[in-house]
Every structure is written in structure tokens, then in C-alpha cells.
Amino acid sequence: MAMPSHLWVNGLWERINDEIWKQNKTKAGIAERCGFERKLLNGDCNISLTNLAKLCKELNVSADYLLFGK
């Protein structure tokens, strides 16, 4: 079942995937360093604030950029 669009921040997972690709990192490596399961980075679930913060630190980007593209 698809999630209602209001539960997703438009473009969040696209920006995450683009940043991972630009930095030539792997999702498995990022997940391991951040301490969560690789499947969290599939983009088919909501990410917790704690895990978003870990991801921002690992990718060296702001939460504003990942959430809003700014």
C-alpha cells in the first residue's frame, strides 16, 4: 500500500540518493557507519529524526538540504 503523499517530504529520497552517488559512497557502508539497517535507505519508509541526523553527519550535508533542497 502506498503512503499518502502528505507523509513524505517531496524529493527527500532523491536528494539522499543523489548525495550518496555524488560522494561515491555505498548505502551499505553508510548504514553501517550510521548504525542502522541498509533497508532504511531504500526510501520506502519514513526516517526518524535521529537517523536523519546521523545521515546528515555522515554525508556532511544539512537537514534543510535533504528535507527541502536548500
TrEMBL record:
<protein>
    <submittedName>
        <fullName>XRE family transcriptional regulator</fullName>
    </submittedName>
</protein>
<dbReference type="InterPro" id="IPR010982">
    <property type="entry name" value="Lambda_DNA-bd_dom_sf"/>
</dbReference>
<feature type="domain" description="HTH cro/C1-type">
    <location>
        <begin position="39"/>
        <end position="66"/>
    </location>
</feature>
<dbReference type="GO" id="GO:0003677">
    <property type="term" value="F:DNA binding"/>
</dbReference>
<dbReference type="InterPro" id="IPR001387">
    <property type="entry name" value="Cro/C1-type_HTH"/>
</dbReference>
